[in-house]
Amino acid sequence: MKTIILRTASNYLLPVLLLFSIFILLRGHYLPGGGFVGGLIAAIAFVLHSFANGLKNTKSLLRFHPGFLMPTGLALSFFSGLSPMIFAGDPFMTGLWYHGHVPVLGSIGSAMFFDMGVYLVVVGVTLTIIFTISEAP
Amino acid sequence: MISAILLGFLFALLLVFAGKFFKGKFAVLSSLIPLGLFLYFLQFIPEIMEGKVVKESYNWVPSFGVNLGFTLDGLSLLFCLMITGIGFLVFAYTSAYLHHHKYLDRFYGYLSVFMAAMLGLVLSDNVISLFTFWELTSISSFFLIGFNNTQEASRKSALTALGITGLGGMFLLAGVVVLGNITGTFSIAEMLNMSPELIKGNEYYTLAVIMLFGAAFTKSAQFPFHFWLPGAMKAPTPVSTYLHSATMVKAGIYLVMRFTPILGGEEIWNTTLIVVGAVTMLYSAVHSLFRTDLKGVLAYSTISALGILMFLIGMGTTESFTAAAVFIIVHALYKATLFLTTGIIDHQTGTRDVTVLSGLRKVLMPVGIAAIIAAISSAGIPPTVGFLGKELTYEATMHAPIIATVLLVGIVITKMLLLWAGFVAGIKPFQGNLPDSLKDTKMPGPLMWVPPVILAVLSLVFGIMPFIIEGSLIKPVVATLGGESGEIHLALWHGFNTVFILSLVTITIGTILYFVLKPSAKLETAVGKLEFASPKSLMEKFNTGFTYVSSFWTRVFQNGYLRNYVFIIIFFLIGMVGYSMLGNTEFNIDTSELSNVSFYELVVFIIMCIAILFTVFTGSRLSAVVAMGVVGLTICLVFVFYSAPDLAMTQFSIDTLTVILFVLVLYRLPRYLKIQDHKMRIRDGILSLLFGGMIAALALKVLSEPVNTEIGDFYAKNSYIMAHGKNVVNVILVDFRGADTMIEISVLTIAAIGVFGLLKLRLKRTDRVQ
């Protein structure tokens, strides 16, 4: 599917889709969206790019293996769960909130970082599976 | 106290990084750890003597009310001193025994993990942590038995031991859970404070007792679970000394003793212990007559000694508790000595065959002295502590609650045979003429011969001056078990009475037996013919049968064809769910409340139907996948119509990715699609229709059930108040049930790693062995 139209379009679509996926991730707390869907959209963006430009180009664009996103995401989620134990002495996974208004994001809490972790894991898992299968001899 | 337990684990961790240091010249330094712990526990003696109990408690899982409690009382102290004291000698001995061994650091690692786990086991107040440490001792024992992992026999023995003690671990877990349900607590101290009638009157009392016995009998190698222990002698001798004679196998004894004041006194408790203990002690004492391997003799006499202990605890009198407490010390001292001297003989001469060994006193004098003292103590000849132990045992058995005479005969015969075993292991190798083949045997370094000498001297010292252990160890133990500790007076000379006459008879007949019956290979092979009926071979036959059945099962149901798996799973699902739905399912579809079908919904429905038909009948695999994608997208639209945007979004992305994945995989499959014949297609078609019909019926059934909205209401109400989120779905995912999500993303990660590993693994041709 290496058509010029798709290749050109995918180069522009990649950042737009990634931005959209982050938008979906962040709005998840108030409106439909969230880390899981956001992660899937981000993964689709990369898959689209790889279809148009070849896997090699996408991989060099990524610079590191998407598999590394999995432990990173897991760690982020886990530590966001731990944070109330460390900072407030509450049990594991208690919501911890910064009560003030932050521009763009609204309010910040440990749940948001948890969702970001989910996002990273989903991107990592999806891309790892798809890249591995398409590379298989 | 918790730091004392953790020290062993930390040392094992340190060995991972600093293994080189402890492998060479400085190996002996590692014995400082058990020595330090030994001194630490010694300082508690005055406190324990006054009848105090030292307690420590930490919050573990406060939301479940589970505390990590540690208790040091008389019973724990006795075990702690044995674990660390003998541990110190064994650690030091090992540095010479496995001098410059390639994996000495690993060995020390396993050994100190074991020591720490064993300390944790005897100090735990919480039964769950007791179970955890119990399992840890089984696991470290597995690694130590299989230490010579290049020998198949070692590996097999290690697995057998793990299998049996692991089974016991399951029993223990079940037992403590039942006990926790009966008493409502996991703390032993709290169980002790409850009225015993409440526990013993409970309908699950018998179940709890059976489970705990299952654990204790497997760990302490009671008949018919005893056979793992002789196998465990494949381990290096220091391990046999430490785990399989002095400490770990006594964990079962400890468990029974620990629960005696809580569960003991009932008939099922006492009778079972007496019967199992008596059978074990006689059975394995007889078996020890037929061994020629020194360690084999010692293994069977150890099992017999464990049987005696179970038997003594089962009698449940102050006298028998005293005898058990003394005998634990007696046995630990003489058996550890004999194992260590056996290790020296093995190390210096290269053989443990007792028919070959003789006259070694000429070359290994100090070792011989230690071994002979130990043999005398095991025979119960004064002035060793063994005499004391035997007198107390006879005294207690004479006053047994049931069939005292029969039991007395049994214990006297056992003691005679044990005398034989002790003499064979401790005196026979040093007696007589030194054969030429053993002439150039060299004396080992002091690190090896001093530990058995120390233990042997202790056997003598405690025998001559029993007051040393009377107040400090024996009385607190008996008090812990619920006996009258005030009545105890240990003394070497009890006067000329029935017990003394029995002692004389035992020693005389035992010694005659020693001179008449020589261990021989002929006897060993003769008894080997009966092996087919032993619990070990029965167990092996059972296991072989089990493997056969499971491989048959696997061949039939898991033959590697994906279509087969799908078929079987769906077939069984239809069978099970369909069966339970048959006859008791009512549908009341209320058409009046349904909304009107809009034009868009109708169109989507028609598209869906067309796509499904196309999927089924198309000849091209790729178009089938695309059609499935269309079905997925129409379902997304349905979600949108019925206001579930979250679901629609997720379904949409998932569908996109599924199609991509399908294409990627199908791309690699052979071109043709019709790999099934006509019959199979019909079979699959019927199955699919049945399954689809069943799911539809199930969905309708769910709709007609009354709905409980309580949970939904809770989430909807508290989503913003408690979790500051307006999107309830997402709040449930990341907050209310965040722990679930945490596990789910872990599972996803594992799946991805699995795919990566399976597809990227490219074994070299030589490694591809089935």
TrEMBL record, chain A:
| Protein's cellular compartments | Cell membrane
UniProt KW Aminoacyl-tRNA synthetase keyword = no
Q: Which UniProt keywords apply?
A: Cell membrane, Membrane, Transmembrane, Transmembrane helix
Q: Report the InterPro entries cross-referenced here.
A: CPA3_antiporter_subunitB, MnhB
GO CC terms for this protein?
plasma membrane
Q: Which domain of life is it from?
A: Bacteria
Write down the membrane topology.
Multi-pass membrane protein
Where would I find the Na+/H+ antiporter MnhB subunit-related protein domain in this sequence? 5-128
Q: What is this protein called?
A: Na+/H+ antiporter subunit B
Lineage start:
Bacteria, Pseudomonadati, Bacteroidota, Flavobacteriia, Flavobacteriales
UniProtKB/TrEMBL annotation, chain B:
The primary location reported for this protein is membrane
- Regions that span the bilayer: 75-95, 107-124, 159-184, 204-229, 268-290, 297-315, 321-342, 363-382, 402-427, 447-469, 499-517, 565-582, 597-617, 624-642, 648-667, 687-704, 742-761
Residues forming the NADH-Ubiquinone oxidoreductase (complex I) chain 5 N-terminal domain are 62-108
Q: How does it sit in the membrane?
A: Multi-pass membrane protein
User: Which locations, inside or outside the cell, does it occupy?
Assistant: Cell membrane; Membrane
| Domain NADH:quinone oxidoreductase/Mrp antiporter transmembrane as annotated: residue spans | 124-414
Tell me the GO molecular function terms: antiporter activity
Q: Which Pfam families match?
A: MbhD, MbhE, Proton_antipo_M, Proton_antipo_N
Question: Where in the numbering of this chain does the MrpA C-terminal/MbhD domain appear?
Answer: 606-671
Which keywords describe this protein according to UniProt? Antiport, Cell membrane, Ion transport, Membrane, Transmembrane, Transmembrane helix, Transport
Q: GO CC annotations?
A: plasma membrane
One BP annotation, GO: monoatomic ion transport
UniProt xrefs under InterPro entries: CPA3_Na-H_Antiporter_A, MrpA_C/MbhD, MrpA_C/MbhE, ND/Mrp_TM, Proton_antipo_N
Ranges for the MrpA C-terminal/MbhE domain? 681-760
Q: Which residues form the signal peptide?
A: none
Instruction: Enumerate the NCBIfam families for this protein.
Output: PRK12647.1 (NF009287)
- Name the chain's protein: Monovalent cation/H+ antiporter subunit A
